[in-house]
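In this supplementary section we document a worked example of the pipeline. Step one takes a protein sequence of length 130 as its only input; no multiple sequence alignment statistics are reported here. Step two produces a three-dimensional model, which step three serialises into structure tokens for compact storage. The input and output of this example are shown verbatim.
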Amino acid sequence: MNDPKLTDDARDMMVRMARLGPLYDSELPMCALDLDVAIDTGRLGLITGDDKGVLVAVEEIAGWFGKVDAEADVRESIHRLHAHGAMLVEFHGDVPLLRIVAGKPERPGEPWIFHGSPESTSRDQLTPTS
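The serialised model returned by step three reads:
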């Protein structure tokens, strides 16, 4: 990808799309690109059950997955959770924040249940330490 007509940002986005596409069955949502850029910072915004935002180190999130050996494994694990609907990305301004899903709607119109909410008490499996 050394086309002189491409900007560095365009080249970066194409590389990210090629790397992330298979994790999302080649239907890559734009928020996945924003999530990937946020992972680069080493900290991710997380919305807790009381609708407050906290910054969590990517290494801490990796600990939630058990033993993860490489940075690429952490990145892939976060994207796989997002791709399967276990984490949703919300934007507050232009900042992507994650919400951990405790329960998906079973039928259209039913609400999502998020980790830490009163509805999730019996469903929560993941316990962030921050």
